[in-house]
Specification:
Structural class of chain B: alpha+beta
CATH superfamily of one domain in chain A: HypD, alpha/beta domain 2
Largest sheet of chain A: 5 strands, parallel
Order of helices and strands of chain B: EEEEEHH
Radius of gyration of chain B: 14 Å
Shape of chain A: globular
CATH architecture of chain B: Roll
Strand content of chain A: 15-25%
CATH class of chain B: Mainly Beta
Mean pLDDT of chain A: 94
Oligomer: heterodimer
Strand content of chain B: 35-45%
Mean pLDDT of chain B: 82
Number of helices of chain B: 2
Structural class of chain A: alpha/beta
CATH architecture of one domain in chain A: 3-Layer(aba) Sandwich
Distance between the termini of chain A: 46 Å
Number of domains of chain B: 1
CATH class of one domain in chain A: Alpha Beta
Helix content of chain B: 25-40%
Largest interface: A-B, 60 and 39 residues
Strand order of the largest sheet of chain B: 3-2-1-4-5
Largest sheet of chain B: 5 strands, antiparallel
Number of strands of chain A: 11
């Protein structure tokens, strides 16, 4: 049988699944996008549930960091550059104040979206007298190129406001909790391309759950789902890699070297979730001249603290942890839409709320229930 | 943000590679590929301007077909898996 989406669906349908639900979590915005766009939830058997987990780096970036970047742009004579996704994320400050990097830019701050770390260096080189701060949020796939940039050498006037995060510690946090909320894991393809699939081995060996690394084509995702469902049925979990053409054993060793050389693993805050041990990166002492947190320290003010609190009604943190679906959020599609996003899950292309909205889901669970009752 | 796209290497100058995909050319960095040889004509996965891995021509092609589908259907709601098969 050829490896098509249909054939994998057929194989999954033929599995002797019990009546109880089997929950498969993905931890990658790219995976969730492919699942939603292909409409896989509707095509799979009813007792297979697909849960989007912590897979959006923009969604978990602490708002204090965004607040710091905004304040730097507004109050200091610096240019702030950031990946485009970060510019629209609102922080929790009163509406009359500047709430996002985009608004700070409109208010006259020199804030520029970039698509690659090299652009940050190029902008710094254009005007060596002007300080440039690169606000760098992202998971390992994106943080490794930032490390490579530092390792290759950057202009004196460039510093990094680093908000890099590691995916595995967040999944481990769920696995260590009383109710992880999933029975199997589809592991992220491009994080594994850099870090190696082996990072996900403990899911099976330590926690006894099926796990498969997947690519971004529905065929690859369905193959990974089939693998984990079979592992689950047979009670023999192991780490499978259904994306071997890109995810090689050991990942990308040079990328890992640059991470180790320029950055240190540290406990780090996840927006709305709190601090997760060993889940973030800081610039290492050898590169301290390029650490924006040292070069432009942020004063700990009540405003900064408040900016880091969750906006009223926003359930982003529970969506990120896979505890609820986007539509279960109290303000999905009501106060929070892509046009007027309240939380980052509705801003980022990798946020579960934005992805569900883009795939045509407009009504919240509460809205649907109310409509049913009325109709 | 973690999505990488496949491109084909057209020209190499030190750590800089001129890459092409769908008629668009970009300069990308080979700095993270120091342990693996990358040559002109190779297909590579590019993320935020850096090559993160080499791929086979087949994988590059199938990823591009998927990206085309997503771009085409982004505003049109859902795509059935069968339609994706038809294109792969």
């Amino acid at each position: 049988m050829a490896d098509t989406a249909q054939s994998w669906l057929q194989r999954i349908r033929e599995l002797p699944l019990p009546a109880q639900k089997v929950k498969i979590m993905n931890v990658c915005g790219g995976h969730e996008r492919a699942i939603s766009m292909a409409g896989l939830r509707k095509l799979l058997p009813e007792n297979v549930e697909l849960i989007p987990g912590p897979g959006c780096p923009v969604c978990i970036c602490p708002e204090e960091d965004i607040y710091d970047a905004i304040q730097l742009g507004l109050n200091e004579d610096v240019t702030v550059v950031a990946f485009g996704d970060m510019l629209r994320v609102p922080v929790n400050v009163p509406r009359r104040e500047v709430r996002s990097l985009e608004q700070a830019r409109a208010a006259g701050a020199d804030i520029r979206p970039i698509a690659t770390p090299q652009e940050a260096a190029a902008i710094a080189r254009q005007d060596p007298k002007r300080e440039v701060v690169f606000f760098a949020a992202g998971f390992e796939t994106t943080t490794a190129p930032v490390a490579a940039l530092l390792a290759q050498g950057v202009p004196d006037n460039l510093s990094i406001l680093l908000s890099g995060r590691r995916t595995w510690p967040a999944v481990q946090l769920l696995l260590e909790s009383d109710d992880p909320g999933f029975d199997a894991l589809v592991a992220p393809g491009h994080v594994s391309t850099v870090m190696g699939a082996e990072e996900w081995e403990p899911v099976a060996t330590q926690y006894g759950l099926p796990v498969a690394v997947a690519g971004f084509h529905p065929v690859s995702l369905l193959a990974a789902m089939y693998s984990t469902l079979r592992q689950w049925l047979e009670g023999k979990p192991f780490l499978d890699n259904v994306y071997p053409e890109v995810v090689k054993p050991g990942g990308n060793p040079a990328a890992q070297r640059f991470l180790q050389h320029t950055m240190e693993v540290t406990d780090a805050k996840w927006r709305g979730i709190g601090s997760i041990p060993d889940s973030g990166y800081t610039v290492t002492a050898g590169y301290r001249d390029h650490d924006a947190r040292l070069r432009h320290p942020a004063p700990e003010t009540p405003e900064r603290k408040r900016a880091g609190e969750m906006p009223q009604g926003c359930d982003c943190a529970r969506v990120v942890l896979g505890k609820i679906y986007p539509t279960d959020c109290r303000i999905y599609g009501l106060a929070c839409t892509p046009r007027t996003p309240v939380g980052p899950c509705m801003v980022s292309d990798e946020g579960a709320c934005r992805i569900w909205w883009a795939s045509g889901v407009r009504m919240s669970t509460a809205g649907e229930a109310a409509a049913k009752k009325a109709g | 943000m973690c999505l990488a796209i496949p491109m084909q290497v057209v020209e190499i100058d030190g750590f800089n590679a001129r890459c092409e995909a769908k008629g668009v050319e970009r300069d990308v960095s080979l700095f993270m590929m120091q342990d693996q040889g990358v040559g002109v004509g190779d297909f590579v996965m590019v993320h935020v301007g850096y090559v993160i891995q080499k791929v086979t021509p087949q994988e590059a092609r199938s990823t591009w077909e998927l990206i085309d589908q997503v771009l085409d259907e982004q505003d049109a709601g859902t795509v059935a898996a069968a339609e994706l098969d038809a294109a792969s």
